[in-house]
Amino acid sequence: KYKIMEVSILGFHNYFLKLVLASSIGFLVGIERSSRRNSQIGVGTTSTFMLACTLLTIISKECLGGADISRLIANIITAVGFLCGSVIFLREKNNKSNNNEYDNEVNDTEVIGLTTGAILFALTGVGIAIGLGYFGLAITSTLMIELNIFFARKVKKLKGN
User: Fold this and answer.
1) DSSP state of 60
2) In angstroms, what CA-CA distances link 12 with 27, 111, 133, 141, 144?
3) Tens digits of per-residue pLDDT, 3-12?
C-alpha cells in the first residue's frame, strides 16, 4: 500500500539539502530570539522545530507517495497550534496605584509569549514549504518573518515599551 522510500544518491542529496536548509533557517531565527531577554525559544528549539516540520512533510510526500498529503500537513498545523498555545501565558503584574488615597494595589495582566507562538506557527509553514521543495517561498517567507520581527521591535521602542 505504501511506497517504500528508495534512497538513491540523488534522493539523499535532495533530502539532505531540505533538512540542512530547514535547520539553518531555524538557527537564524533562533539567534534573533535568543537575543531577547524574555524569549521562551532559542536556537535549539527553532532549528529542531523547523527540522521536524520539514521531516514530517518529506515523509508524507515521499514515503506515503503523496497520498493525501494534505491530511498530514493539516495534522502538523493542528499539533503546532497546540504547541503555540502552550507558550502563551497571561501573567499578573502588580502595580501600586498613586491615584487612590488608600494606596491599593492595582492588578493588571499582560500577555507574554504571543510573538513566540506566532513565530513557531510561521516557521511551520516555512518547514512545510521546504519539505515540499518550495525553496524560494521558504527563503522569502523567512526574510519576511525576520523583517516583521525587526520592525516590530523598532515600533515597540518608539512607543516606549
Assistant:
1) I
2) 22, 44, 14, 25, 29
3) 445 545 556 6
